[in-house]
Amino acid sequence: LPSDYNRVNWGVKYPLSDSYPGIFISIAPYKLYDDYCLTHAITSIYNDTISLSANAYAKDKDGNVIGETFVFVHALARGMTYVNMIYCDEGTPDGSIRWEEFEVLPKTYEQVVAWEADLQATGDYNEGVLTAEYNLYSTEDVTMTPGDVTILLTDENGNITGLGVDYCADEVKAGESCRRTVDIYQDSTILS
Fold first, then answer.
1. 5-42: per-residue pLDDT in tens?
2. Which of 110, 112, 133, 139 is spaced 20 to 30 Å from 76 by Cα?
3. 138 versus 56: which is more confidently predicted?
4. Alpha carbon of 102 to those of 20, 60, 71, 147, 185: distances in Å?
C-alpha cells in the first residue's frame, strides 16, 4: 500500500538495473539485540503485472556476504510493494544488497488481489515482543491464495523498531478473512 510504504524510512532507494528501470529497490536496516537484518522492498511502476525471482546477498563493509535470501514474487502489479528481509547473522551489513539471477517475467503465476488488513498489537514493548493479531481480507470478489505476511513497526521517524513474519496458509474467499496472530520482535533498547 502506498501509504504504508511511505511510513518507513527507507535509507536507500534505487532502480534495480538499467534493464529494469521500472522496478525499485528500497532498503532499511533493522536491529534486534546483536543481530541485524536488511529489510528490502521491491516496487513495480510498470503498467503490466509481472512476476520476479532473484537471489539477494547482504554485504559487509569489506564486500563479504553476511546473509542471503531467495525472492520469488508470484504477481506484482503497478504500485504494489513486496517486503522481505535478509538476516545478517554473520556480521554487520553495510546497507547494500547484491542481486543475482534476477529474472522478471511478463507473465504471472497468480492473480493480483487487492487486500486490506486490520492489526491490533498487545504486550509490553519493554519486554521485546508484542503479539499482533491481524485480520487479512480481500477487497475484491476474488479468492486470495496463501502468502507471506510481513509486519513492520516504526518509530515516529519511520525507523523500523519491530518486525514480524507470518504465512497465511489458507485460501481466503471473498467475504472471508485470514485471522492469525504473529509475534513482533523488537529491541526496546533502540528507543531508550
1. 888 999 899 998 888 899 999 999 988 777 888 999 99
2. 133
3. 56
4. 10, 21, 9, 21, 30
